[in-house]
From TrEMBL:
It is a multi-pass membrane protein. Signal peptide: none annotated. This is Quinol oxidase subunit I QxtA. The gene is qxtA. GO terms for cellular component: cytochrome complex; plasma membrane. The lineage of its organism: Bacteria, Pseudomonadati, Pseudomonadota, Alphaproteobacteria, Hyphomicrobiales.
């Protein structure tokens, strides 16, 4: 059934599918790990039990999201060998060490302290437990740093040389790691993770405020989430603008596709708000645009010239409709997040933050918006880089393994079925946990992993039994 398909296209679809599933879990766990550190720090500082209750509520959800992120990430590394072996051979001397550094310096740090964070509060003391929580949070950020460094190098490669085998080899590791787009991409992604987490926490808080279950705990998490949204959303919009200017400098063709500029504009380019990209005719049909605003945003001058895709051969153009719309989805959701944050600020000022049911409903509707924005941003970045895997140096068509389309297609179907079953069940369970109100952790028997022989009796029960035996 796949005889008429292109193996390269199927390999791209498979990697896009698996990375889309994977990225939503790290995007959530990066922000949630930092949120857990803040909650525990506030509990140690204020001694208010509500922060401990929220910590115990969210740590279980974090453990599940972290586990699913690890499992979904392992699959992608195998695809480098199965579907992208030529790419792996050519860029392995650079990408391989960066991925290895991520495992050694970040993943081991997260995994090493995760057990203490989940089960060790009554075993290591509050200080060391807080340190473990901080290390998990720091580990997630270091992990994001290495992964984004590797991806950014593929977008804006520098610090490399080519050997006689046609491989990219490092000539300057500092230039490789701190490539031109890396700082902008790292800031943009970490802020996106924080916003994604804030939206989820705000949605859960809004749900329980509407249900009037655990109002103190729900109100606390809702207030914290809205503060994060209010403060970080405008920073993210500014960071995204700076990232766009960096992209214009180093990947101008991607910006042409994002803006829908099929034609060059020597006297100022319009900002196309909406329209239907027509790749065949190289134009935007039914365009709704604001004259010269794109030049003002990108060049800070109304009359600044901007080149269009008419200066780029068609075979080197990215798929404009996908990039055009994914970019608008990301930007639109970013401004929707800003709107929700400002609305919550107004309600806070009027004393209605915990009673405005419409605000709580809006927060619930916006709960998945962070994930959608992250996926839209990822699509913009990766599809906009086409037709290259290493921008300007290695074509995607020259990166794929010599493998039959039928083999790639059958494995893609298997991935789709397994992913929806396994990760669908995991996501459903996380949603069930979120629907339950946070509870007092003093009655929690789950202070450690369940033993294969059953749950160990409580200490006072064990001592009673021991005393009875000694008495007899």
């Amino acid at each position: 059934m796949f005889e008429t398909f292109d193996a390269t296209l199927l390999a791209r679809m498979q990697f896009a599918f698996t990375v889309s599933f994977h990225i939503i879990f790290p995007a959530f766990s990066i922000g949630l790990a930092s949120y857990l550190a803040v909650l525990e720090g506030l509990w140690l500082w204020t001694k208010k039990v509500v922060y401990l209750e929220l910590f115990d509520f969210w740590k279980t959800i974090f453990a599940l999201a972290f586990g699913m992120g690890v499992v979904s990430g392992i699959v992608m590394s195998y695809q480098f060998g199965t579907n992208w072996s030529v790419f792996s051979d050519k860029v392995g001397p650079i990408i391989g060490p960066l991925m290895g550094y991520e495992v050694l310096s970040a993943f081991f740090l997260e995994a090493g302290f995760l057990g203490i964070m989940l089960f060790g509060r009554n075993r290591v003391g509050p200080g060391l437990h807080f340190f473990a929580t901080l290390m998990v949070a720091v580990g997630t950020l270091i992990s994001a740093t290495w992964i984004l460094s590797a991806n950014s190098w593929m977008q804006t490669p520098q610090g490399f040389a080519m050997n006689d085998k046609g491989q990219f080899i490092p000539a300057d590791w500092w230039a490789v790691i701190f490539n031109p787009s890396f700082p902008y991409r790292l800031v943009h992604m970490v802020l996106a993770a924080y916003l994604t987490t804030a939206l989820v926490v705000g949605a859960v808080g809004g749900l329980h405020l509407l249900r009037r279950t655990a109002p103190l705990r729900a109100g606390t998490m809702f207030s914290m989430a809205m503060w994060m949204l209010t403060l970080v959303a405008p920073i993210q919009i500014f960071a995204g603008d700076q990232h766009g200017l960096n992209t214009l400098e180093h990947q101008p063709v991607k910006v042409m596709a994002m803006e829908g500029h099929y034609q060059s504009h020597p006297d100022g380019a319009p900002l196309i708000l909406f329209g239907l990209p027509n790749q065949a005719e190289q134009r935007i049909d039914y365009a709704i645009e604001i004259p010269k605003l794109s030049s003002l945003i990108l060049k800070h001058s109304l009359d600044a010239p901007l080149k269009g895709l008419d200066t780029v051969p068609r075979e080197l153009q990215p798929p404009v409709p996908i990039v055009f719309w994914s970019f608008r989805i990301m930007v639109g959701l970013g401004f929707a997040m800003l709107g929700l944050g400002l609305w919550s600020l107004y309600c806070r000022w009027r004393g209605r933050l915990y009673t405005s049911e419409w605000l709580h409903r809006a927060a619930m509707v916006m709960g998945p918006a962070g994930f959608v924005a992250v996926l839209a941003g990822w699509v913009t970045t990766e599809v906009g880089r086409q037709p290259y895997t290493v921008y300007g140096h290695l074509l995607t068509a020259n990166s794929v393994s010599p493998i039959a389309a039928a083999a790639v297609g059958s494995s893609l179907i298997a991935f789709v079925i397994v992913y929806f079953l396994v990760f669908g069940a995991g996501t459903f369970y996380i949603l069930r946990l979120m629907s339950r109100p946070p509870r007092d952790p003093s009655g929690d028997l789950g202070e450690g992993p369940i033993r294969t022989a059953g749950i160990t009796p409580a200490p006072h029960v064990a001592s009673l039994h021991a005393g009875g035996r000694h008495g007899h």
